[in-house]
Amino acid sequence: MSGDVHVQFCERPWGRFLRATLLVIGFQYHTDAVKFLTELKKRVENFGLKLHPKKTRLIEFGRFASSNRKKSGKGKPETFDFLGFTHICSKNKKGDFFLRRKTIKKRFKRKCKEVKQELNRRMHENIKMTGKWLGTVITGYTNYYAVPGNMRVVKAFYTRCVRDWLRVLRRRSHKARNLKWKKYRKYVEWLIPRPRLVHPFPDLRFKALKLKVGAG
Questions:
Q1: Of 85, 103, 121, which residue constitutes the final position of a domain?
Q2: Does 114 share its domain with 34?
Q3: Phi/psi at 9 (nearest 5 deg)?
Q4: Which of residues 63, 78, 103 is at a domain's end?
Q5: What is the DSSP letter of 175?
Q6: Which residue, 15, 25, 119, 185, is the most exposed by fewest CB within 10 angstroms?
Q7: What is the DSSP letter of 192?
Q8: Are 33 and 115 in a shared domain?
Q9: 114 and 94 in one domain?
């Protein structure tokens, strides 16, 4: 079980407090989760605070969530959004539990829209400068979102950005309308790195840590 807790600060005449970030807490037993949520509500009320009623919830999530909900006749386990990812109970190729993290759809669409608008603004700028800028954008996106199970979304972002840039270049002039993909691809390969998996599986990181400790 995990609680998706959002704390809303009350405003006072002498100051304005920023909202707290989402807090996700996991529990092994349902009774512990219910008890914690009850005590948390009482605790924050003592300080004049309150939990957001629509964003505070208990969900069944984890290794046994799918089997437990199937036995009780319920649907698939609920998902939750945290740190830019939608967390999903999934399975790997072996059939074992796998925590799948996918970029939140709204954030993906918003980022694509922002890149497209900036490309339109840079339409008549130097191609090399625009290509380098787009390369840094894609690299930054990859460095954060390239986790196991999310590479399809990362590659989709790369493809969408590259195609949007091609459309913008073809609108630069009458001659540019005839820009072929073969020629354009050279610019892409030169200026924009292809996305790759940046963050390995947790078990691989733990193995690397053990090797480093052992070597010391």
A1: 103
A2: no
A3: -80, 140
A4: 103
A5: G
A6: 15
A7: -
A8: no
A9: no
Domain that holds residue 53: 2-103
The whole-number pLDDT of residue 14 equals 41
For residue 43, tell me if it sits in a domain: yes
How far is the C-alpha of 66 from the C-alpha of 59, rounded, in Å? 12
Same domain, yes or no, for 61 and 144?
no
The Cβ of residue 131 has, within 10 Å, a number of other Cβ atoms equal to 17
Q: Which of 41-55, 88-102, 148-162, 190-204 has the highest mean pLDDT?
A: 148-162
- My answer on whether 7 and 35 are in the same domain is yes
Each residue's pLDDT tens digit, 187-213: 899 999 999 998 877 665 555 545 555
- Residue 93 near residue 100, CB atoms below 8 Å: no
What's the rounded Cα separation, in Å, for the pair 204 and 90?
19
Choose among 190, 195, 188, 139: nearest CA to 165: 188
Q: Which pLDDT belongs to residue 107?
A: 95
- Per-residue tokens: 107: 């954030």
Neighbour count for residue 72 (Cβ, 10 Å):
8
Total residues belonging to the chain:
216
Q: Which two tokens stand for residue 113?
A: 């829209």
Helical segments of 12-86, H only: 30-45, 65-71
Q: Are 111 and 142 in contact, with CB atoms under 8 Å apart? A: no
Q: What is the pLDDT of residue 19?
A: 53
- pLDDT band at 33; cut points 50, 70, 90: confident
Q: Please give the tally of structural domains in the chain.
A: 2
- 128-136 average pLDDT score: 95
